[in-house]
Every structure is written in C-alpha cells, then in structure tokens.
Here is the input.
Amino acid sequence: MNYYPTPKAYAHRLESHGFRVEQIALIPRPTPLLEGGMSEWLKTFRRGVIEALPESARELVVRETTELLTHALRDEEGNWSADYVRLRFRATL
Here is the structure.
C-alpha cells in the first residue's frame, strides 16, 4: 500500500503525535523518463501490482495505463516524465 498524504494531512499526523510543524511543502520534481518511457517505468516501479494480475492481463494493463497517462505526462515530442513530488517538512518535538 502506498500513502500519499497532502501537506495538510501529513502536518495533522505529525501534530497528533506531538510535533510542532514549522514548515511543510509539496515540491514538484518532474523527472524525465529514458528509453522505454512510461511502460518501462510501470514495469519497474509498479512490478508488484502488475505481477499480482493474471499474466494474460499484464501487458493490456500496462498499455492501457500508458495510454491514459499520455496526455498528462508526455510532451509534444513524445518525451515522458514521471510526476514525482517531494513532501518536505521541518518539525520539532
């Protein structure tokens, strides 16, 4: 399971455990993907999810997922980028 909290949700989580949040920010880090683009990224970083599917469905899922992401994560020249973000914070007890 992955957990992708908003800055507000993560600040609340920290504060509920006694921390005082001094600073918190979500920082976009778009990352260019090399040869293989999104389909190779999916096969590498979402391997566990893909391997949990019936073998006959795996390539179809990768292909359809890649198609769904095309408009958001591929530029006019066909270059893919991953929409990574970092959640940075400074908190004290």
